[in-house]
Amino acid sequence: MASGWPARRTCGIAQCTAGLAQEVLERAKRRKVSWPEPVEEDSERLSAAFASVVEFMSRTTEECEKYYSYVPASRCQENEIKHICRYHSRQAAENLLQTLEQEARKASKDLCIEVSPGTYSVTATSDDMVKQTHVVDVNAGQSIDLTFSI
Question: What is the overall mean pLDDT for the chain?
Fold first, then answer.
């Protein structure tokens, strides 16, 4: 007899829970929610607020585009390039990328210097005074390629 008691009690709890759930469902069905109708003046104020935000964003975008039109593309950092590509016009992004490509082509120079065998320190300096140095040992008849990333 003791083994049947917990099963009956569990069954009773389940029935009780099901009954309570059914009551809650019925009460929810009878409940009516009345949402307030929007007031015309609220709608007008909301429209005016959105218009103000749009105007502010437009002016901010113009100022931002003006700023980046004066900054040389080579001085833009990666996050600035991503910003221009994401938030500015497609034309602004294409212009920036085209300028970067042109500057990269202009900046790339091949230079050939013949020297006697020995150890040399070769330094390259960019327009904005960034320096990079390579130290090389040159043997007779040897050709060495150096690449500077500045």
Answer: 79
| Phi, psi at 77, each rounded to 5° | -85, 170
Question: In the predicted model, what is the mean pLDDT of residues 97-125?
Answer: 77
Residues 125/150, Cβ–Cβ less than 8 Å? yes
40, two tokens? 């015309």
Buried b (16+ CB within 10 A) or exposed e, 11-28: eeeeeeeeeeeeeeeeee
Listed as own residue / partner, the contacts of 75-80 with beta carbons closer than 8 Å and 24 or more positions apart are 75/128, 76/100
What are the pLDDT digits (tens) for 70-94? 887 778 888 888 888 787 777 777 8
User: How many Å separate Cα 104 from the centre of its chain?
Assistant: 24
Q: Phi then psi for 118, rounded to 5 degrees?
A: 155, -175
What's the CA gap between 37 and 39, in Å, rounded?
Answer: 6
pTM of the model: 0.38
Q: Hey, what amino acid is at 119? A: T
User: pLDDT per residue over 32-57, tens digit each?
Assistant: 777 777 677 777 888 899 999 999 99
User: Helix, strand, coil: what percent of the chain each, to 5?
Assistant: 60, 10, 30
